[in-house]
Design brief:
α7 runs parallel beside α10 and α10 packs across α11. With about 425 residues, the chain is an alpha/beta fold. It folds into two domains: about 200 residues, Rossmann fold (3-Layer(aba) Sandwich), CATH 3.40.50; about 220 residues, NAD(P)-binding Rossmann-like Domain (Rossmann fold). It is built from 13 helices and 13 strands.
């Protein structure tokens, strides 16, 4: 296969676009494929639609001729490789019916298959359960192309390791795990990623690589559940969990700090553990530890609402009829990504208790349509001024954005409920400040 041929990246979101830019910056030609005409149009104009990816960088890649966006999947015929970076959500919301939704992966495979050619490399980067790449995806690709994986074309899995908003998250410096359907498939994928990534981590096969990604995210989910549980326990004893973690983190061995919050957010941590839970049942296994962590984390929004109710009671108010300002709606600091944000769960629970709720987020000026929270679409972020803040009965900190004027909030808010320790070091009257 000609190493100078373009590569295709399917899915130009928070994983696919950074990856496309990185390959383009390294001098490879990239065809970005997506079904969203708005993304294609903006990219081909050299514009970014993701906060932490500067428009200047996108424009440079487009103007150099190394990056173009398209909805035409037949362009894969021009390419040496195609990397799949599409969502892997869950089908249900209740714990009992949370099953993996591979429709995006399999529909992509169906769209790719007629355009595959001998020697091409196909790599899945989306997080999923072991067996997806060499099982579900392989069958779709072989059926639609008439080609055999490992013989006519190469097939591999290499999990994304994006950390949006983290300036230290550089594709070139983050070790890249790669597993192939066959050793030859793995070697072909290693050769491609080796052109842009400094450290490669080859593993036995696709299933090991898929398990690596799940293990990484389950590790975070379980440890966050632990500190969330400790938060509740220590709060009942009058102990500040944030001070405990800060002191414990001074130990130079045997401890890694994780921090509590109002619930899990993002496309990975709240979802990925359930992929393994679902797949484990096929092998007669239970994931009790993972399921318990899920129960603790999903209970956090209700715990926070109860703390809001208790804080209002100290001011002689009830949640019913109170005006609550959510401070931050993105799932993590300094990004515009609101997928699976606990802010939406808090918003719903507060409104169900007949509170009036608005939000301020400097990075999400308008709530975009989504499958999970359709009824919030179109609501706009309020301006953060002293006059606006004074009009609310309480401010609930959901996300600790660096762009928020916390001293202004401290001076203007009638009541503050802080789930992120955002006011550390900022003077706030003790009777007006509560942690949750």
């Amino acid at each position: 296969m000609n190493a100078d041929l373009p590569i295709a990246i399917v899915g130009l979101g928070y994983v696919g676009l950074p990856l496309a830019l990185h390959f383009a910056d390294a001098g490879l030609k990239v065809i970005g494929l997506d079904l969203d005409p708005a993304k294609i149009e903006r990219l081909n104009r050299g514009e970014s639609y993701i906060l932490h990816l500067p428009t200047e960088r996108v424009a440079r890649a487009v103007n150099s001729g190394n990056l173009e966006a398209s909805a035409d999947f037949s362009r894969i015929r021009e390419c040496q490789a195609v990397l799949i970076c599409v969502p892997t959500p869950l089908k249900g919301s209740a714990e009992s019916d949370r099953e993996p939704d591979l429709s995006h992966v399999l529909n992509t495979g169906t769209a790719l298959a007629p355009h595959l050619h001998p020697g091409i490399l196909v790599v899945l980067e989306s997080t999923t359960y072991p067996g997806t790449t060499d099982g579900d995806l392989r069958c779709v690709l072989e059926k639609g192309s008439g080609l055999e994986a490992g013989v006519d074309f190469h097939l591999a899995y290499s999990p994304e390791r994006e950390d949006p908003g983290n300036p230290a998250s550089d594709v070139a410096r983050i070790p890249k795990v790669v597993g192939g359907y066959t050793p030859a498939c793995r070697d072909r994928a290693l050769a491609l990623y080796g052109r842009v990534v400094k450290t490669l981590v080859p593993v036995a096969d696709c299933r090991v690589a898929e398990a690596v990604k799940l293990t990484e995210n389950i590790f975070r989910a379980v440890n966050i559940a632990m500190v969330n549980e400790l938060k509740v326990v220590y709060a009942s004893m009058g102990i500040d969990i944030w001070e405990v973690i800060a002191a414990a983190a001074t130990k130079p061995f045997g401890f890694m700090p994780f921090y509590p919050g109002p619930g899990l957010g993002g496309h990975c941590i709240p979802i990925d553990p359930f992929y393994l839970t679902w797949k484990a049942r096929e092998f007669g296994q239970e994931t009790r530890f993972i399921q318990l962590a899920g129960e603790i984390n999903t209970a956090m929004p209700q715990y926070v609402v109860n703390q809001v109710r208790a804080a209002l009671a100290t001011r002689g108010k009830t949640l019913t009829g109170s005006r609550i300002l959510l401070l931050g709606l993105a799932y993590k600091p300094d990004v515009d990504d609101d997928r699976e944000s606990p802010g939406y769960v808090l918003w719903r629970l507060l409104e169900e208790a007949d509170a009036s709720v608005e939000y301020h987020d400097p990075h999400i000026p308008l709530v975009r349509p989504s499958r999970e929270h359709r009824h919030f679409a179109g609501r706009a972020s309020v301006e953060l001024t002293a006059e606006v803040i004074e009009g609310f009965d309480a401010v609930l900190v959901v996300t600790r954005h660096g762009a928020v004027d916390y001293p202004l909030v401290a001076q203007s808010a009638a009541l503050i409920i802080d789930t992120r320790n955002a006011f550390a070091g900022i003077p706030v009257p003790a009777h007006l400040y509560f942690k949750a």
